[in-house]
């Protein structure tokens, strides 16, 4: 790892926060990159050059100053990274007094270099993973063979492993990915990766299918974020399919009035099937479709509750807080206005499909 002026200045700054002594940091050419004394920056340090050549500590006492031009008394120690010398750190002062401090400073500098190198590796790794995931979920499609090849260089991806994609979303608050990561590590540690792919979405790949209990725990700890869960699938195509179903669950959250809640695609199988019906097939119901405009929001809501209560009139009336006779009146009016009897299973299903498709169409207009 090559020392840069920016990195050297950052290290001198951090060391001087705990050690109040003059410090110089030289690169592999003996040039002072950073110093507690700004005047010395850019100068050649002959003592550092000797330390580099001998690969050992150089102690400069007062009587040796003439032997080392452009130096001051002190201790100069090579700085190592992965068994290679990358520079020299010098601590100015009486060598007998600063020798131990110089060694402590050298260890601190080496720790900072290792930490910086690790941060850079993590940054590159995260960027490579983000690029891979963004290619995977691109709305216009993807190159499967290319992604399979690139996955070989990603430690987080094992294409022989099944994954379930979940989306964390947020429109109103900034993401706190550290909080999300902490929550997952604490309660659901079996995930392969977590990555922020845009300002609205964090993608998580779980190695096992999330249970309802786990989903609830996650939601309790992250109330500001929506959680939308796809299928458990295998391979590149499986990952993309799972993501698309998680995205579908996000879309369905508007339909089911569960924004910023937990929505699992497995609970929306009928709605997904309805949405996938072709426009050509829906054309067979064009006459019935035209009648929907005759229904008020009150009638539509009453029908949905009746349908979800499995046609149980008493339960529906209780949920709507109306008398059963009022419910029967509304159901009769729906039949009169649409020519579809909500008490008939086949016709009720047709009505449900038509109303659901109509709502999807309305939601698309809002999103667009």
UniProtKB/TrEMBL annotation:
It comes from the Bacteria. InterPro entries: CdaR-like_regulators (IPR051448), Diacid_rec (IPR008599), PucR_C-HTH_dom (IPR025736), PucR_C-HTH_sf (IPR042070). Residues 300-355 form the PucR C-terminal helix-turn-helix domain. Pfam families: Diacid_rec, HTH_30. Residues 3-135 form the Putative sugar diacid recognition domain. This is Carbohydrate diacid regulator.
